[in-house]
Specification:
The complex is a heterodimer of chains A (472) and B (328). Chain A is mostly helical. Chain A is built from 18 helices and no strands. Chain A is 67% helix and 0% strand. Helices cover 46% and strands 8% of the residues of chain B. In chain B, a hairpin with a 5-residue loop joins strand 4 (193-195) and strand 5. Classes of the chains: A mainly alpha (472), B alpha/beta (328).
């Protein structure tokens, strides 16, 4: 089920009505759990079984770890949790990728081996809920979180429908305590939640799907030829599409959870207003970058070792972060480029430690960060390396002379205006929070803006494209 | 609460601004709806893959299936064709802007289908490698295998709204309107097409408007390879349908203006239609040689006016009926 659908509106109305009834908190949690499974099962019912397997495995592994008297036993159950979760993720998401690459390597050394056909459908959101649930066993293993006695509470935390398939990636340690006491949305939470939901839908349906996606689809067509202008238009449009698509989903998730009385983590903070790449990763997909920082980068040694070791840790984290997005070398390249940017920035930052005070210098830094980020998006979006390479070549001026693919000037112009608008907003409010900006508006202005967004949602023609991050 | 949880800020007068938003949106949408209705627009369905899947799901085993691009979706009325064929069920499965080959493969692999396929002869699709038009049909076919439980319900809900609200018309969506305005320097005066639940699309050209395409409609130059590949695919699919007692008939639909001149210059129909039919071992119907065909106006060069379609369909239906009788 997707947020931008009529079925979801009916589904949410039913869930919210029960959630705000006089029923007991326990029964409300059970209804939330069932609703979350319905939400997930709507895509492909059998995949709910995987969600159950992951939930049951981690619930009992955490209990067993807590009861273990010896470190090896704790390690055994932690290993079991890792093996089970990463095993499922590996099989469904990376099985075909690994088999194909093994086949290529064998071919190079003269052995012909055809990998078995992996005719598998990737379970929606498996990377997200695997990270949700792993954060629980890892925290229990480290002794930072007590194992839960109630499997219902834990199952709700893993499967809570607003954040189940595309995040934000909630840590068990921040969501489980919210289940201790009855939650229902206050009037303020409802008005905030609905406001965020409308803004999120506007970003997704109007900006990402209605305006930017058609140009991106044409520009990134495999086997297409790309002119300099088309390549840049396609890439800039994708930088906007992926932001509005994913940030829109996150805002919807935050808003829906808030209507039910829950708070989720912020996932975006004007990322294209970032000055440098460490700043970018503090603003883009925050729940993933902090997860990778806490459960991968720091355990690898973080920045506690030599400068070289820190750079290796950074690179490894970003490469794995890239691979987390998808089983393809293009995602590894995307992660690798970000890793390289971070390493270079670390070295440069030694020469210039703090953000400059002059606006022109900051603006230049933001622009450089944005343009370099755009080059990484080419690898993220292109369906194969040939297309990505052709796009990059065209972007740096090695394009083949031809009339171009994007024939509609109006569509192109709308994309450019949307991207410019996005950049201006990100830079203008880079040091504040979107909700602060909304709070500073008069109710009439805020209401009129939201009203315009609602009208635009209805007449946008964005259709029902799936959210991009569902595929991860 | 942990510090990294979203900082919940209370919006001052939150309910008031929401009430203003809802009131504003309702008034604006009602105004827009009335504006378009006053200009003569009517509610119409959207040409989605789900509507296609529903029609595909209703294909009768011995029925007639129309496969092609927009030329056939706008050019053959399934109700009239069914009447002409004595009540034989007819399914309109042509897809705008698409190459029908994946749909033919789908029917060929459907062991229960032993009916008749009216397959569009369109040189642009058959003889040149296409960019995306095959994928479009393949995506429609694949969407019918979507395991989602919710998608059919969502499609039905959407259709209920589309049948009632003009503002959901694709032509009136923001980007489409902006493009129209930039091109014509005015808003559309009435709807350009109307999609029926049986997927037949009525083209509603203004009487005074003739906007034939320029002859740059070809995606790519003719290559013998593409022709051979397509013929090979088609031949196998047709063989499967014929083996079950089914039939495939090629159909060349009316075209005019630059499109006709361009197609005839590249692939004269009297040579290439016959050559293709012979290669595929199937009969062919050419609109240009149909006896008793009334004048068919195709203002944009390839889509007939809705008012001309019943007569056209009847003549095609009679030709198909006599072909089937001869084959029998």
């Amino acid at each position: 089920m997707v947020f931008n659908s009529l079925v979801f509106v009916i589904f949410f109305a039913v869930v919210a009505a029960y959630h705000h009834s006089s029923a007991s908190w326990r029964s409300k949690k059970l209804v939330l759990l069932v609703a979350s499974y319905v939400f997930y099962g709507a895509w492909n019912p059998p995949f709910v079984l995987l969600l159950w397997a992951s939930t049951i495995l981690d619930f009992y592994c955490a209990l067993a770890m807590e009861r273990s008297k010896t470190v090896p036993r704790r390690k055994l159950f932690m290993g079991l949790s890792l093996l089970g979760n990463l095993g499922m993720l590996g099989y469904f998401k990376y099985g075909h990728f690994v088999a194909e690459n093994v086949s290529h390597i064998l071919h190079v050394i003269g052995i012909v081996w055809t990998p078995p056909a992996f005719d598998l459908v990737l379970p929606v959101g498996i990377s997200f809920y695997t990270f949700h649930t792993l954060s629980y066993t890892l925290d229990v293993y480290r002794g930072e979180l007590a194992a839960r006695r109630s499997i219902v509470d834990f199952a709700v935390a893993v499967s809570f429908f607003p954040q189940l398939v595309a995040g934000p990636i909630m840590r068990a340690s921040s969501f489980l305590p919210q289940l201790d006491h009855e939650k229902r949305g206050s009037a303020a939470q409802w008005s905030n939640g609905l406001t965020l939901f409308v803004i999120g839908l506007f970003q997704k349906m109007v900006l990402a799907d209605g305006i930017l996606a058609p140009i991106v689809d044409v520009s990134f067509q495999p086997d297409g030829t790309h002119s300099f202008a088309d390549a840049w238009l396609g890439t800039l449009s994708f930088s906007g599409q992926i932001f509005f698509d994913f940030a829109g989903y996150s805002l919807c998730a935050l808003g829906i959870a808030r209507c039910l009385g829950f708070e989720l983590v912020d996932n975006f903070k004007q990322p294209y207003g970032a000055y440098g790449f460490s700043d970018f990763w503090r603003r883009w997909h925050i729940s993933l970058s902090t997860w990778l920082r806490d459960y991968l980068y720091i355990p690898l040694g973080g920045n506690r070792g030599t400068a070289r070791r820190t750079e290796i840790n950074l690179m490894l984290t970003m490469l794995i972060g890239g691979l987390w997005h998808g089983a393809s070398w293009s995602f590894v390249v995307w992660g690798g480029l970000h890793g390289a940017y971070l390493v270079i920035e670390r070295r440069v930052r030694g020469l210039r430690p703090a953000e400059p005070t002059q606006f022109s210098a900051v603006a230049m830094g933001i622009l450089i960060t944005y343009v370099l980020t755009c080059f990484t998006w080419v690898f993220f979006r292109a369906s194969d390396f040939t297309t990505a390479w052709e796009m990059v070549r065209a972007m740096v001026g090695f394009s083949t002379p031809h009339p171009g693919q994007v024939s509609s000037i109006v569509r192109g112009l709308l994309c450019v205006l949307t991207v410019i608008g996005m950049l201006v907003v990100h830079v203008r409010i880079r040091k504040t929070h979107m909700e602060d900006v909304l709070a500073a508006m008069s109710p009439v202005l805020r209401g009129s803006l939201l009203g315009l967004m609602l009208v635009a949602i209805v007449i946008s023609g964005g259709g029902q494209r799936a959210f991009i991050y569902f595929q991860f | 609460m942990p510090s990294f949880i979203s900082s919940f800020r209370t919006l001052p007068h939150g309910w008031r601004s929401l009430a203003i938003a809802v009131g504003f949106a309702l008034c604006a949408l009602a105004g827009i709806e009335m504006f378009w209705r006053a200009r003569g627009f009517h509610p119409t369905l959207t040409n989605t893959s789900w509507l296609w899947c529903e029609t595909r799901g209703r294909v009768a085993s011995n029925g007639v299936v129309i496969l092609g691009s927009s030329r056939l979706q706008t050019g053959l009325d399934p109700v009239v064709l069914s009447d002409t064929l004595g009540g034989r069920p007819v399914s309109q499965l042509a897809i705008v802007g698409a190459n029908p080959i994946p749909a033919l493969l789908d029917l060929a692999n459907d062991a229960s289908f032993n009916g008749v396929v009216l397959f569009e002869y369109m040189p642009r699709r058959l003889f040149t490698p296409d960019f995306g038009s095959t994928e479009r049909t393949a995506a429609f076919v694949a969407s019918c295998r979507d395991p989602s439980v919710i998608a059919p319900i969502e499609a039905k809900l959407e259709r209920e709204l589309e049948q009632r609200l003009v503002i959901l018309n694709d032509d009136l969506q923001f980007v489409a309107l902006a493009s129209f305005f930039a091109h014509h320097k005015r808003l559309p005066r009435h709807e350009s097409e109307r999609l029926r639940p049986d997927r037949f699309t009525e083209m509603l050209f203004p009487e005074d408007e003739h906007t034939p395409h320029a002859p740059d409609v070809w995606d790519a130059p003719f290559t013998g390879t593409a022709f051979e590949e397509h013929l090979h695919e088609l031949h196998d699919a047709i063989a499967k349908i014929k083996a079950r007692g089914g039939k495939v008939v090629l159909y060349r639909s009316p075209i005019s203006h630059d499109i006709l001149a361009d197609e005839e210059a590249r692939f004269p129909a009297n040579v290439w239609l016959e050559r293709t039919a012979r290669a595929l071992d199937v009969p062919a119907i050419d609109y240009a040689t149909l006896p008793g065909l009334p004048p068919v106006d195709t203002p944009d060069g390839e889509h007939p006016r809705a008012r001309d379609v019943p007569a056209l369909t009847r003549v095609v239906g009679q030709a198909l009926a006599s072909l089937l009788a001869t084959e029998r």
